[in-house]
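stage 2 :: seqdesign
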């Protein structure tokens, strides 16, 4: 793929490799340095309609996702091994049904950072208040919170970075 970023190449490979009957739409493929995450949308469980009470719809979705996880385990492992060999990243799987989304297994990569005292005090406050069990949990909580509140901006930033990477691959080779 001339000019395609590595993430676009991986996404294309995953879409080409997945069985067509697994998901109702193209799987969402997310790529970073350590991991490829594949999340597909499943058919609505039988008997679930727009009038189904939310609690019942959620339980039906959890059941549908659980069934998918068990029924596709061997095939998912085979695809993951191929991708891990080809792209040198771990592969994580997930599924969505209705408003319910579940990741089956995924990497929790350690990230080293240096924080000054005011930043450490924020983490320690979260630990002391019982919001997090440790500084690592508190830092993860902070990152998730920022991600939730700035998703549009982060999406634009990722898109811009993707455009820069594409331009680099199309540019003159030194």
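stage 2 :: out
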């Amino acid at each position: 793929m001339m000019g395609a970023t590595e993430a676009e190449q991986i996404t294309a490979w995953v879409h080409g490799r997945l069985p067509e009957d697994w998901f109702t739409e193209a799987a969402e493929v997310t790529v970073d340095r350590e991991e490829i995450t594949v999340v597909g949308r499943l058919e609505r469980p039988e008997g679930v309609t727009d009038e189904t009470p939310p609690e019942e719809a959620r339980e039906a979705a959890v059941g549908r996702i659980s069934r998918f996880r068990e029924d596709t385990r061997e095939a998912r492992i085979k695809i993951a091994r191929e991708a891990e060999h080809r792209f040198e990243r771990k592969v994580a799987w997930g599924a969505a049904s209705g408003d319910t989304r579940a990741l089956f297994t995924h990497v929790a990569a350690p990230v080293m950072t240096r924080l000054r005292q005011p930043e450490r005090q924020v983490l320690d406050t979260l630990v002391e208040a019982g919001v997090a069990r440790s500084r690592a949990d508190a830092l993860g909580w902070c990152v998730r919170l920022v991600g939730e509140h700035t998703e549009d901006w982060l999406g634009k930033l990722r898109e811009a970075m993707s455009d820069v990477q594409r331009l680099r691959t199309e540019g003159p080779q030194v």
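stage 3 :: structure notes
- Strands lie at 28-31, 35-41, 90-97, 100-105.
- The chain has two domains: 1-108, 110-174.
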